[in-house]
Amino acid sequence: MKKFAIAIHGGAGTILPSLMTPEKELLYRNALKAATEAGLAILKKGSSSLDAVEAAVMYLEDFPLFNAGKGAVFTNAGTHEMDASIMEGLNLEAGAVSGVSHIKNPIQLARLIKEQSGHVYLSGLPAEQFAQSCGMVLEPSSYFYTEERYKQWQQVKDSDTYQLDHSDKIEQGEKKFGTVGAVALDQHGNLAAATSTGGMTNKRFGRVGDTPIIGAGTYANNATCAISCTGHGEFFMRAVVAYDISCLMAYKGLTLQEACRLVVNDKLVKMGGEGGLVAIDSHGNIALPFNSEGMYRAWASATELVQTAIYKD
Amino acid sequence: MKKFAIAIHGGAGTILPSLMTPEKELLYRNALKAATEAGLAILKKGSSSLDAVEAAVMYLEDFPLFNAGKGAVFTNAGTHEMDASIMEGLNLEAGAVSGVSHIKNPIQLARLIKEQSGHVYLSGLPAEQFAQSCGMVLEPSSYFYTEERYKQWQQVKDSDTYQLDHSDKIEQGEKKFGTVGAVALDQHGNLAAATSTGGMTNKRFGRVGDTPIIGAGTYANNATCAISCTGHGEFFMRAVVAYDISCLMAYKGLTLQEACRLVVNDKLVKMGGEGGLVAIDSHGNIALPFNSEGMYRAWASATELVQTAIYKD
Predict the structure, then answer these.
(1) pLDDT digits (tens, 9 = 90+) for A201-214
(2) Total domain count for chain A?
(3) Residue B114 and which of A198, A240, B94, B123 are 20 to 30 A apart at CA?
(4) Can you tell me the distance from the alpha carbon of A85 to that of B27, in angstroms, rounded to the nearest whole number?
């Protein structure tokens, strides 16, 4: 059987056993497992890594505990502003979207942009008009409402504070970078990466993070690797994290593991950039580095059943 | 005297002597010269490369023949949507903005975002609100009106065609990627890069190009180089052009010239990505590669008076 593999994440940050209930941990692990299985089933039947990462991310977007799609956090204005991007390692084709408020699955729109817009990156309300012109149905704002996110927002909405998903003030030291993502290798040797986020609670001024930025939050190239990031986006943009890993492999001959360790556990740490990423290379090697307390993650391959993890090993 | 140098561009594309009048060429050359001198004067007195690239780009934004600031092209909706970004090689700090319609000098707003927002990238109307909260005055849409741009838009506005500044249909084969940008090295050894654009004539759906993307249209790192791109942005984003040049220098030991040639005249050409860039390294070496017919460009240094060029050598 030919090689195939997938790895996903549901965000990184101050995720500690002491802040988790067994019931909530089970909910997270089950969701990570189901999302990975959704992608794995596609890879198993010989379909594309692009389909697999889209399916895995859609599952995570639909699951309300992760900060993407349903469950996206509230902005300062009480709205939801979501970003996503997707990239295909075979041809370096990419699609990205930022600041959409009525798209059930932003990753689907990112793929639609890649395939039907003639562009790479569309933004804001006009991106929703593009979605409609392609037959995509817009969701009312109420679809994205969850009580937990609303409460988080109420706690900080009259302040100038923005929060990276859960923040210090809310849950005893928890700071979580809410993003979801997936990378995969299919049986044809093609890599793909996808990332989706609801941004920061109480964020203002149309802030865009690394999620829709090709090269920062998402990158895929059959010659090197596929990467999906989660973390303090400002640092990931300034460090061009995803493409940096690809370049360290292509130009310096580092392995995926070596490149990931250098970027996540050395360069980003020195800058003060907290977070992590999931990565896969063209041989199916997987790396899941993070420099925070934890990262919701899962992986599987042609020869390995789904594994889930949350904390440091 | 310590080294310092600056290079600027005013866009690349099908710019041919046969499509130019002597009067118009003089206008362009004078504007390129004046913009370079604005930056050079700052470098000469020992101020920062960041101030120099901002001043040069502001001059180009204020000059109506270039597609940025005053002179920005019209969108499909008859509006102006401008993008810009700036980066400081000393500390990898960066600021970016996209989709603003009432900012006289988007490069100033990009710098303000870098220095006062706590973020890297703000987008759309909320970015204008941030500008106002910092005391920046918004301009009425009429400020950005120019007759030439209006006529260009009228010719295509009822079509689905978008145009990269001037396009085939309008001026006998001219296709111009309207962007302005600057890179500089100051006497303290610090590099900086800045890029600003009015986007594509008749563009729809909130399209974002490479200009506001750190790593694609703009990058600066004292360890390698500073880069400002102009071209068909979709390709520049997928190729992560600016950071690719930096990585080829850092990880593969290429010179600035070698890295620029590989990316602009080989990799981008193979992808079908037309355009160019201006680049400078920490020794003050300058590269001005492009794979189109021409690129509006100018450069100067501590030892060389301002030079301007438009066509291939």
Answers:
(1) 888 889 999 999 99
(2) 1
(3) A198
(4) 41
